[in-house]
Amino acid sequence: xxxxxxxxxxxxxxxxxxxxxxxxxxxxxxxxxxxxxxxxxxxxxxxxxxxxxxxxxxxxxxxxxxxxxxxxxxxxxxxxxxxxxxxxxxxxxxxxxxxxxxxxxxxxxxxxxxxxxxxxxxxxxxxxxxxxxxxxxxxxxxxxxxxxxxxxxxxxxxxxxxxxxxxxxxxxxxxxxxxxxxxxxxxxxxxxxxxxxxxxxxxxxxxxxxxxxxxxxxxxxxxxxxxxxxxxxxxxxxxxxxxxxxxxxxxxxxxxxxxxxxxxxxxxxxxxxxxxxxxxxxxxxxxxxxxxxxxxxxxxxxxxxxxxxxxxxxxxxxxxxxxxxxxxxxxxxxxxxxxxxxxxxxxxxxxxxxxx
Length: 356
Description:
Blueprint (H helix, E strand, L loop, with lengths): L3 H7 L7 H32 L6 H18 L1 H9 L8 H34 L10 H19 L8 E3 L5 E3 L2 H4 L6 H37 L1 H5 L1 H37 L4 H19 L1 H12 L1 H24 L8 H20 L1
Antiparallel strand pairs: 1-2
InterPro entries: GP183-like, GPCR_Rhodpsn, GPCR_Rhodpsn_7TM
Keywords: Adaptive immunity, Cell membrane, Disulfide bond, G-protein coupled receptor, Immunity, Membrane, Receptor, Transducer, Transmembrane, Transmembrane helix
GO biological process, one term: adaptive immune response
């Protein structure tokens, strides 16, 4: 019977989808990277402008933004790798560095999003009994613990070879077949990793969301003002945003990984199944990378300053647009009155903006 490594060597068509992947994946990363950097940099900017008003939710949001920015910094070289048709010419050391940056910030982000959901749960369900958990001093310790634990979980990546020379002389980096044969119980390790790194956080978030939603529903029945309160909308928005990011970004990858590992425990998947798994991994990893773009929507509900800053930027953009239309309009033409009205609207909006 062939070992997993020998089976992978005999499968020569694992990267036959490279003509499509070398176009679509770099294209996706070229969008995800700048959007993620911009959105998360804006969040950090807003948080540091109000550094004296730090609280639990802004601290978790700041750490999530940092993890997303570091995550985005790993994407350009990954885009180059895919653009070269799954070829990594930059050496084993840089491959390990990118892998560490990628997985460290991916799972740090998962934990910080979980903390955001738990924080909203505690604020609404146990506002006095568990108030100590939301103190800035304790939240800083929680954030530090998350970084240290996730770092300890990802450091073993530095002890194994993450690159492999394929039969066509290309060098792959961070691909699943490169891991097979390196660890004795790889399926068991990955199943445990999925349960701890994804299953536990998503179960925690769903429980928090369910209890908070039920509590708010019961409170709204007795007092209609509760349903309209900013605190209620904020809690719903934060937890719903976190649930959405988990479902869209993280669920496909982890479910895909879990189902293949379970199959490996039952029987030996053939080359066709391994090739299909490879293709699905590349798709689901792209979806997972999308979380760095979607997290700013969580900040929109979590951080009041972020929402206000974003709305001011949008108002400035709209005001500038209408002003430029007004300036270029022909005043003597038949459409002059209409465009003149737009110009006045733009001036009015600019006046409002300047007065804020």
